[in-house]
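cache lookup: miss for this entity combination. No prior model stored, computing from scratch. Input as submitted by user K.M.:
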Amino acid sequence: MEIFISRNIEDGSLLLDEEESRHCIRVLRHRKGDEINVIDGNGCLYRCILTSDNTDGASAEIIGREENWGTHPYRLTMAVCPTKNTDRYEWFAEKACEIGVDTIVPVVGEHSERRIFKPARIEKILVSAAKQSLKGSIPSVEDIVTVKDFIARDADRTKDKDGKVLKLMAYCFEDENHPRTSIKEALKDMSEGCKDITVMIGPEGDFSKEEAALAMENGYIPVHLGPSRLRTETAALAAVNAVYSHFML
Amino acid sequence: MEIFISRNIEDGSLLLDEEESRHCIRVLRHRKGDEINVIDGNGCLYRCILTSDNTDGASAEIIGREENWGTHPYRLTMAVCPTKNTDRYEWFAEKACEIGVDTIVPVVGEHSERRIFKPARIEKILVSAAKQSLKGSIPSVEDIVTVKDFIARDADRTKDKDGKVLKLMAYCFEDENHPRTSIKEALKDMSEGCKDITVMIGPEGDFSKEEAALAMENGYIPVHLGPSRLRTETAALAAVNAVYSHFML
């Protein structure tokens, strides 16, 4: 099933941008009158009939729509420190999208070696991963932020949601004041009806004690991801899998 | 923690091959008398003292050993059809090793596009993944085999182990005769004390009905990996994560 994306949808009809039009018309040789499937990137799938096969900007008439197409039964924010090697982060983003994630936030920790992050490539990767795995919604990628600023910002976002948000921080060091539970247990223990989950994954050098302490003050639960020693991107995907698996029937 | 590997271990001492010796002596500048950590690839870690810093073949005296170093509490065989793009299979192998897998078997299905498999690169990747994730054991990679031959061979391996092996086949199509359960449920339902698990992951084109039927006849349980539509390598890693997470305390 081929999926196109349009950011230009007005009631009843939509326009494909140049890249999508070229792919649809030149590569896949669709012509006026053909039926195509288009997502808006916000969760909706449109069944359409091409009304123009212009390779610079094809247009289509919407004949059907499906909300929450290929969605998942939770809302997951992954705050993950950039990896030294960008490919590894891009790989994580692609796989997380296939499995089910809503927001990816590159966070820079005090022990992070890599402090820059270029979202452009990741956004392209997420669009094709969403199309490929038949999802109407494309995960959003936020601007890079420090771990401490993210914790503060997230505290605002989640306050007054008493118990309806689960915030987890995965770190490696043992902290006698804050014994870690496994992510599996933390998910089991989360309050009834909670579907909004945030997981923070630290850099190779782990979170700093200060970052961990600040997170705990702001309602984060310290978790481990089991006995294996995982690279940042593997740990991040293991967390996405743990959430996906928790909600699996 | 730097880890070296040696396949040449005799009681009391061991030899590093040329590549490992060069890395140890030339790159990391270790000298006679230094303490190094060496795995045998079969689960054992040796603490050693370098007795020669020859860059062609360094030798060391064993002063301590730890069995089952960095092991996991299950035995997992992943029989996964080769992906069109080799990188994706290599990526799966690396991540599966980090999380915990014992054997990887490339299997060719009737709907497989790719029917060849070069193990050499994967074996190198597994060695560095095992070192990097502090595991004494390196997953073995078997020769490529057809799905049907694998099922027959695996039936021999697992017969008479009544209930002590869980065999799962993940496919996408609905089969009224064999309704699928989720891999999570299948793991929950497995018999007490079972730790030996085999999971088969099909090609992009899925398993054929005949392959699925043969698997069922041979004790495989048909499973799905949840609602998301996953690429072969993502499905394979999701299965490894599901097993890892099942045994997580």
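stored under new cache key. The longest strand of chain A covers residues 45-52.
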